[in-house]
Design a protein that fits this description.
The complex is a heterodimer of chains A (270) and B (217). Chain A is of the alpha+beta class. Chain A has seven helices and five strands; from the N terminus they run H-H-H-H-E-H-E-E-H-H-E-E. Chain B contains eight helices and no strands. Classes of the chains: A alpha+beta (270), B mainly alpha (217).
C-alpha cells in the first residue's frame, strides 16, 4: 500500500506526463497541419509562376513566329514586285511596241530576243522564289539532297557552308523531313547572322538514332544565359519545340569564344 | 466553480458541438465520403443521448455497453473513411486488412481484455491521418487544402486521436490515484472532442463553397 504522500506524488507525475504528452501531441498535430497548408501554398505559387513563365514564352514564340512570317511575306512580295513584276512589265512594254510597230524591222529580232530573255529571267526568279519557300528536291530526292542544295546556296566567300553525310539514308515521314530541314535552315541562318563564323559544317549521320550536327567556329554563346532571356531564348525554344514534335531532342554545346555545336537527335522510322 | 461542474459544463458543450455538427451535415450538400462522418456524428449523438438519460434517470454513469458499441462503430466507420481516401493507392490494401483485422480483434478483446484497444485505435487513426497528409503533399492534387472539406475532417481526426493518446494510456492509473486529476484529464479529452466537432462543422460548410473537392482527394 502506497503512502498517501507517495500516491499524491505519483498522481502529480502522471498528471504532468499526461499534460506534457498531450500538449506535445497536439502541438505536433497542429505543426503537421500548418506545414501541409504552407507547403501546398508554396507549391501553388511555384505552379502559377511556372505557368506564367511558360505563357510568356508561348506568347513571345507566337509573336516571333508571326514576325518571321511577315518578314518572309515581305521578302516574297519584294522579290515578286522587283523581280517578277518589273521583268514582266518590261516584257509587256516590248511586246506592245512590237505590236504597234514602234520598233524598226531591222531591230525586231533583237527586241524579240530581249523579250524572251526577260521572260526566261522571270521564270528563273519564280523558280527561285518557289524553291526558297519549299525546295522541290526535299520531296523528290529527300532530306540529304535538299540540305546539300541549301548549303551550296548559302555558301559564300565570307562563310564556308559545308555539308557531309554519313551512312545510307533511310525513310522519314514528310513531316519529319520538313521539320528537320527547317531546323537546319534556321540553325545555319542563325550562325550566318550572329556567329561571325568563317566555317559552318552540317553533318547528317543516317544511323539510328538519326543525328544532325550543325557546327560553326564563330563567337559562340552561353545557352543557359540565352534561355534565361525570353526574347533571345525564343529561337532556341522554337528549335527544341520542333524537335519535340517529331520525338527528337536538341543539345546545344557552346561557350563564348568557342564556337557552337548543335546536335539534333531523332528516332526515325526504319 | 468545482472540478465536477467544469467537467459537466465541458461534457454538455461536447454534446452541443456534436449535435451542431450533425445538424450542419444535413444542411449542406452531401457526398458519399462525408456521409460516413455524418453517420459517425449520429452514432456519437445517440451514445451521448443514452448516457445522458442514464445519468439523469437512473443515476448511473456512462454505460459500458453503449461505450463499446460506439467505439466499435467509430472504428468501422473511420476505417471505411480512410479506405475511400486510400483506395486508389497501395495504402488502400493496408486499410483493407485493417477493416477485417481490427474489428475482429476488438470483439475478441471485449472478452479477453488482452490490451487497451482504445490506445491502439488512437495510434491507428493518428497514423492514418498523417499518411493522408503525406498523400496530399506527394500527389499535389489539392491546390488549396484550406478549402477542401476532407482536409479539415482529417485534421480533426489527427488532433482528436493524437491529443487523446496520453490521456487514454494513463487514465486508469490516474483514476485509482487521483480522482480529480482523472476528471480534469477526461475534461481535456472532451475539449478535444469539441475541437473535432468544430472542425467537422467547418468541413461541412465547405462542401457548398467547393463542390468539386471530390476530384482532388
Amino acid at each position: 500500500m502506497l503512502h498517501p504522500y507517495d500516491m499524491k506524488q505519483e498522481a502529480s507525475n502522471i498528471i504532468l506526463l499526461v499534460a506534457v504528452g498531450s500538449a506535445g501531441m497536439i502541438a505536433m498535430a497542429i505543426s503537421i497541419i500548418s506545414f501541409v497548408i504552407y507547403y501546398q501554398k508554396r507549391m501553388l505559387q511555384n505552379k502559377i509562376a511556372t505557368q506564367e513563365l511558360e505563357s510568356g514564352y508561348q506568347k513571345q514564340l507566337l509573336l516571333t513566329t508571326i514576325e518571321s512570317q511577315e518578314k518572309e511575306r515581305k521578302r516574297i512580295a519584294s522579290d515578286l514586285h522587283d523581280g517578277v513584276g518589273a521583268m514582266l512589265s518590261a516584257a509587256k512594254l516590248n511586246l506592245n511596241m512590237l505590236r504597234s510597230g514602234a520598233i524598226p524591222k531591222e531591230e525586231l529580232t533583237d527586241a524579240l530576243g530581249e523579250t524572251k530573255e526577260m521572260i526566261d529571267e522571270t521564270i528563273e526568279t519564280v523558280r527561285r522564289i518557289s524553291k526558297d519557300l519549299l525546295p522541290s528536291s526535299l520531296d523528290v530526292f529527300g532530306l540529304s539532297k535538299a540540305v546539300q542544295e541549301l548549303c551550296e546556296k548559302l555558301n559564300n566567300p565570307k562563310t564556308k557552308v559545308i555539308f557531309e553525310v554519313r551512312n545510307e539514308e533511310f525513310a522519314l515521314s514528310k513531316q519529319q523531313e520538313l521539320l528537320i530541314f527547317r531546323m537546319i535552315q534556321e540553325l545555319i541562318n542563325n550562325a550566318l547572322k550572329h556567329a561571325e563564323a568563317s566555317k559552318i559544317s552540317v553533318r547528317i549521320n543516317w544511323k539510328q538514332p538519326l543525328t544532325i550536327t550543325v557546327q560553326d567556329d564563330g563567337k559562340g554563346f552561353n545557352p543557359e544565359e540565352i534561355r534565361g532571356d525570353i526574347k533571345r531564348g525564343v529561337g532556341l525554344y522554337s528549335i527544341e519545340n520542333r524537335a519535340s514534335l517529331i520525338g527528337g531532342e536538341v543539345i546545344f554545346e557552346s561557350e563564348p569564344g568557342e564556337g557552337a555545336t548543335i546536335n539534333i537527335i531523332v528516332k526515325g522510322d526504319q | 466553480m468545482t472540478t465536477l461542474q467544469v467537467y459537466n459544463l465541458i461534457f454538455a458543450l461536447t454534446i452541443v458541438s456534436a449535435v451542431s455538427a450533425l445538424v450542419t451535415s444535413f444542411l449542406y450538400p452531401r457526398f458519399q465520403i462525408l456521409s460516413l462522418i455524418q453517420l459517425l456524428l449520429l452514432t456519437s449523438v445517440a451514445a451521448d443521448f443514452i448516457n445522458t438519460l442514464n445519468i439523469i434517470f437512473w443515476q448511473s454513469g456512462i454505460n459500458r455497453y453503449v461505450g463499446l458499441c460506439y467505439r466499435f462503430l467509430e472504428l468501422f466507420i473511420l476505417l471505411q473513411f480512410y479506405f475511400h481516401l486510400f483506395q486508389k493507392n497501395k495504402s488502400g490494401q493496408f486499410v483493407k486488412i485493417l477493416i477485417f483485422v481490427l474489428p475482429i480483434a476488438f470483439l475478441f478483446n471485449i472478452y479477453f481484455e488482452w490490451f487497451s484497444f482504445r490506445t491502439i485505435n488512437m495510434l491507428v487513426f493518428s497514423i492514418l491521418s498523417i499518411m493522408y497528409f503525406y498523400k496530399i503533399i506527394k500527389e499535389m492534387k489539392m491546390d488549396s487544402p484550406v478549402n477542401n472539406p476532407v482536409f479539415w475532417v482529417n485534421s480533426a481526426i489527427l488532433i482528436y486521436f493524437s491529443g487523446s493518446l496520453f490521456f487514454l494510456i494513463f487514465y486508469e492509473p490516474l483514476k485509482n490515484l487521483h480522482t480529480q486529476g482523472a476528471v480534469i484529464s477526461f475534461a481535456l479529452h472532451n475539449t478535444l472532442g469539441i475541437t473535432k466537432n468544430i472542425l467537422f462543422i467547418k468541413a461541412f460548410t465547405l462542401t457548398r463553397k467547393n463542390p468539386s473537392f471530390v476530384t482532388s482527394i
